[in-house]
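Running this now, will post back.
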Amino acid sequence: MQEVLEMLTIPCFGNLATVEDGKPRVRPFAFMYEEKGRFYFLTASDKKVYRQLTATPFIEFTKLTDDMRWVRISGRIAFDDDVQCKEKCFANYPMLKDIYQAPDNPVLKVFYLEHGAASIDSMSGDPQKSFTF
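Update: finished.
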């Protein structure tokens, strides 16, 4: 699992998949941080992605590296309203201050994966590595 964390170094931009009306929706997204086996993300309550997550709380996040390897994590998400989680997001991504002003902004919604699946794959044909967490 350490290899998964090494591939999700901050800043980490990848793609997040959700479900809307039974169909997949994918968009660029930032991975915020990992702590105690939880993978954290941040969105806003006025975005479609938030409505999709509350309706169907399952995601898949993937990141492609420069050497053509990719990591994928997926599972059921939960929300966490703890302002300390939001403060960690702001610490890792200072640009959030320009968008949302402060971590206590009520529109901010932190969500995390705590249990799910992860995999690492490669264009080179190396065997896929799979993990559960």
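The first strand starts at residue 12 and ends at 20. More later if anyone needs it.
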